[in-house]
Amino acid sequence: MIDARSTRRRLALAVIAVFAIVVxxxxxxxxxxxxxxxxxxxxxxxxxxxxxxxxxxxxIVDANGTVLASSVDRFNITAAPDxxxxxxxDRIEEVDGEEKRVKVGFMEAVTEIAELTGADPQQLAxxxxxxxxxxxxxxVKEVTLEVFRKVAALHxxxxxxxxxxxxxxxxxxxxxxxxGLMGTDGPLSGTExxxxxxxxxxxxxxxxxxxxxxxxxxxxxxVETPASDGGTVHLTIDADLQWFAQQALAEQGAAVGAQxxxxxxxxxxxxxxxxxxxxxxxxxxxxxxxxxADSGARSFTAPYEPGSVIKTATVAGLLDAGLLDAGTRFxxxxxxxxxxxxxxxxxxxxxxxxxxxxxxxxxxxxxIGISQMxxxxxxxxxxxxxKKFGFGEPTGxxxxxxxxxxxxxxxxxxxxxxxxxxxQFGQGMTATSAQVASLYQTIGNGGVRIPLTLVEGxxxxxxxxxxxxxxxxxxxxxxxxxxxxxxxxxxxxxxxALAKTLAVPGYRIAAKSGTAEVADADGYGKxxxxxxxxxxxxxxxxxxxxxxxxKPVTMKTSAAAAPTxxxxxKQVIKTFRVTPSTVPAPDNPLTW
Length: 592
Hints:
Layout: H1 4-35, H2 37-44, E1 48-53, E2 60-61, E3 67-79, E4 89-95, E5 98-104, H3 106-117, H4 121-129, E6 137-143, H5 145-152, E7 159-168, H6 176-179, E8 182-183, E9 186-187, H7 190-194, H8 196-199, E10 204-209, E11 222-225, E12 232-235, H9 239-256, E13 260-267, E14 273-279, H10 298-301, H11 311-320, E15 329-332, E16 336-337, E17 344-345, E18 354-357, H12 358-363, H13 367-374, H14 379-388, H15 419-422, H16 433-444, E19 448-449, E20 455-459, E21 465-467, E22 474-475, H17 479-489, H18 491-494, H19 499-502, E23 510-520, E24 523-536, E25 543-550, H20 562-576
Parallel strand pairs: 2-12
Antiparallel strand pairs: 1-10, 2-3, 3-6, 3-7, 4-5, 8-9, 10-11, 12-20, 13-14, 13-25, 15-18, 16-17, 19-22, 20-21, 23-24, 24-25
């Protein structure tokens, strides 16, 4: 007969024994992994390694998700000098169809690495022998997957491979000046640097044990710090339009011998920048693709004297103040002598006394006429008007370096008698291309200035999204003043000398040309900065466009910028399917 009481006793003892064993093993495991982890690492010494685990830096994309910057896998070739044996090591190789153990000398192994990576073999040898007690050194950084595989196939026991994310720009120079540059130690410029908090990944660390012959021991990994990925920055630009604008600038810039050029396309109703092209255009994949001076975004950081495109702000301000209207009559003399000086302002074309309306002065770009208009308003009011349009301050796009390069509009106390007049037609004050684009956005938007936007927001690695707050508009001039100015500017594409070049059949376009003298050590020299800026379609303003060429050689007037302005307008029409104008142009008398 089976003794039930004895069976229960044996079963209880067995359970107790098993429980005791589990407790002992658990205590031992906690002791090894937590309590004595640091001690064991120390005891293990050269048999324990810690590697960096890299997170992935976030991408930069356009408004449609086209990738402009991303991270790709690269690999660092590292080594453990304390495992290096100068007499060499044995390697299994296939010789005459048979696997044989072959002796590989130290310098032979170093030479093999150098041949695959392009490194200097003597430098590699020096790195490996400088301190034989080290357990980690870099041999070659950021090699491709193909090179990594070839180095790994050498089976050198003291060589290790660690992943190292690197930056790639799959669309090359498209928006390169906006995207910015990455160096070996981090971001250098542009969006890469300005939005690094969104893009940056956080590296982690993993520790593991290795055997005496340098082989990583499976199952020994301890993740000490997990890595985290960066977020994605969404730009407002359209990559296809951006490409077109860059190509158009490059073609015309080379044709007229310009030093540099910019082009911007801005949505009138939102202030979003949908193209911001700089020429020369840098390819961030190759930091030497252009000179250092051409690597940034001049549209935001290179203020210049813009010339006659500023007359639009002057006229709009006078209209808003009720001091004139489109048909106000002026008798424009052959020259204008600034009161209290001997300085005479002249027009770009010689003429006698002529009768021009406000529209005629603006369309024909008469410096003399603008100077006469300026007498209608106090200096303080004229300066305040320019500043209300955003000159002398950042555009709101928050581009790196913009705040430090926001141009100059002097206060009344700092403005000399001549500059008090000339700044009304864009000489004696400075502005960036982005600020000029903002002026025309304001005029197209019924007099309401909306800060420019280049970045929509940051999409974090966890899927959450941080929007850039929608900018708040500020009224600069009245709806009447803006609309009247816009209608007068239509005369540039219908009645001005450049009308045939600027016009696009079926679309009403407002435009203003500019030819600004460039200051040098002796005053103003022969160099010019030429531009065309405008808004279309006038009956439903949607896009503001500005095109600028600096110091052209073969054509030193705004005629150099007109073909590119026209080409970009046509491309915007195609890209965004802009419907033709339905309201005819009004009568626009230029003379009386």
